[in-house]
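Session log. Operator J.P. requested a structure for one protein chain; no other inputs attached. Running the standard single-chain path with token output.
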Amino acid sequence: MTLTESSLFSNGVVGWRLEEDASQLLALCREAGISCDDLLGEPVKRQRERAAERLLLCHVMGQPVTLTHTEQGAPVVEGSDVNISISHTPRLVVLAIDPKVIIGVDAEQADRAQVLRVRDKFLNTTEKQFIHPDDLAAHVIAWTAKEAIIKAERNSALDWTNGIMLDPFSLDGFEQGTITLTARCAAARYGLATRLVEGHYITLASLTGQPGQ
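Structure written below.
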């Protein structure tokens, strides 16, 4: 098990590099006093994801807690009003939590070249002007930014292309490990921060206010 904690985000973002199989993760849950019997009938992939989520939450909250999900699939900590967001990849589970700020987090593999082929499905005309068709990093970062905002909005039906508008950004200076972006979604403005961790771009979206504020 590798548990990594990022100091990039003041909200607190933790990640679990998935090296264990489902049975090992379930055993870790039981050792920590985390309920997991409800996962036994789930597909193995889902068992791994859900068990890692619960272990991360236990780490962050300091004790086992009950995690549920809304009809849209958004995670909710039972008995708490903290804002929480979770992202999965085959090799990583990432959790972000904040007691006050509305947040969303997304992680994608840095080499996910498929995003270049579906660029028309998530980039609008304005964004295509500053994101070069061959720039894989910029595409993956843009994808994670929009996905993180969708999670913060808790609305999977949002129009990816025109419903979320990314402001121009550059990857200059990214060798220092982080870039910041801004975006608009309807009446809301979001600040975003992206970091390259474990071969993944991880983007945290935080609600900053209304346009013009």
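Operator note: The radius of gyration is 17 Å.
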